[in-house]
Amino acid sequence: MAEDKKNYKEILEYQDKYVMHTYSPEILLVKGKGSYVWDSANKKYLDFSTGISVCSLGHCHPAVTRAIKEQAGKLVHVSNLYMNEKQPQLAAKLAEKGFDGYAFFANSGAEANEGMIKLARKWGSSKGKFEIIVMEESFHGRTLATLAATGRSKYRVGFAPDMPGFVHVPFNDVSAIEKKISDKTCAVLLEPVQGEGGIIPSRQDYLEKVRELCDKHGILLMFDEVQCGMGRTGTFFAWQGYGVQPDALSMAKALGNGFPIGAFMVRRELGTVLGAGTHASTFGGTPLACAAALAVVDAFDSENILDNCNKQSELLMSGLAKLAKKYKCVKEVRGRGLLIGVVLDRPANDLRKMASSKGLLVLTAGETVLRLLPPLNVSRKEVEEALQILEESLKQLQESQNAK
Ligand SMILES: Cc1ncc(COP(=O)(O)O)c(C=O)c1O
Which of 176, 180, 184, 188 has its CA nearest to residue 134? Predict the structure, then answer.
């Protein structure tokens, strides 16, 4: 048996026997560079899934790899009982990007959101306010609090009872929020662009009115920017594209370009809500994680990442719009920046699989939406290659339907 097949078989056996079956992966990836990854049989894929919006600067970005290597040889971890050089520098860099305030560092999106939820409860506790209004079809993570906040109910099945204190309302509907605000409400939490729910952007007037409503009732507006932040929608923070600033926001995924790090930030006035001893994380904000994230944030400036994101977004969106005209199974193309959903009239998983077999990795979001998350530094040539593979896949999908 060829060496690569033997290797694949052995890893598959270990995966099956020893790794909990919470996922069902089929492809074994062994190497990545820029916008491409390679599997164990050396098949090359154009990666428009980027580890689910994580490797936004492409795989093994040289500056990030260098920063990780250098820091790993100097100081990997110290507890937050001591300062490290990198954490305050990273907090300052993020503030400079347009959200002046304080940062708390965690390790994942769910952990960042948990912290933000705790912030809202602590802020409301002296006033008897604890309820958070959240959106249907939202996704905030898999821990118990973030699961209770998550609107996509299928993820909550089997984990009852839900943690109390979350009220779900339809997304993009201001009056639904207004109706649920009570003297118990401390905050509204939403994704400016819903990711897992099917790539659904907030309407401009919606976000503006939600901000007004929160101000009127003296409650916090909190954005989950774990998937849509860090440049993904064409501005560094997703809220900047709308000009509607929240009181707190969370981020993770692309912050370390693959090195685990999450964070939530609060406006300066809220900086003392979580005082010493009220919240903590052993691994949050280690020198190694922050060194990686500093290299990521620096690359946004030195490599004009946002300009490229917006340029390639136009190219990809217009190419997809042409495909939508040609293939009637495509109902809509939507999104912002390089967070793009192709809405089909049928489950999107078949199309995802066809694209993958032709060398393009993409994702689904909800049942019928194909989700495209290219690296933000993707080239024009790579976008054209992706469009070509998508066209071939749509053709195959349509033909397979006609044959039935
Ligand atoms: C909007 C949003 N929030 C939170 C999370 C959870 O992040 P993590 O998987 O890092 O805990 C995700 C993950 O997909 C997400 O898309």
Answer: 188
Decide: 196 in ligand 1 pocket, CB within 6 A.
Answer: yes
Quick one: which atom of ligand 1 is closest to the CA of 113? 4
Ligand 1 in reach of 141 Cβ (< 6 A)? yes
Cis peptide preceding 88, ω within 30 of 0:
no
DSSP annotation of 59 reads B
Mean pLDDT to the nearest integer, 364-382: 97
Q: What are phi and psi of 251, to 5 degrees?
A: -150, 165
CA angle at 323 for the pair 318 and 325, rounded to the nearest 5°: 95
pLDDT digits (tens, 9 = 90+) for 159-214: 999 999 999 999 999 999 999 999 999 999 999 999 999 999 999 999 999 999 99
pLDDT-derived band of residue 403, with 50, 70 and 90 as boundaries?
Answer: confident
Q: Does domain 3-57+304-403 have CATH number 3.90.1150.10?
A: yes
> In angstroms, rounded to a whole number, what is the distance separating the alpha carbons of residues 128 and 121?
9
Say what the pLDDT of residue 400 is. Answer: 87
Specify the domain boundaries for CATH 3.40.640.10 within the chain: 62-302
How far lies 226's CA from each of 79, 107, 249, in Å? Answer: 24, 12, 9
CATH 3.90.1150.10 domain extents, the chain: 3-57+304-403
224 lines ligand 1 (CB under 6 A): yes
Site to substitute for ligand 1 among 54, 114, 139, most atoms within 8 A of C-beta: 139
Q: Is 252 in the pocket of ligand 1 (CB under 6 A)?
A: yes
Q: Which CATH class is domain 62-302?
A: alpha beta
Ligand 1 pocket, residue 195 CB under 6 Å: yes
d(CA 311, CA 262): 28
Report CA(3)–ligand 1 centroid distance (Å).
Answer: 37
Burial (0-12, 13-18, 19+ Cβ within 10 Å), 303: middle
Ligand 1 centroid vs 52 CA: distance in angstroms? 9
CA distance 130 to 164: 10
How far apart are alpha carbons 300 and 354 in whole angstroms? 33
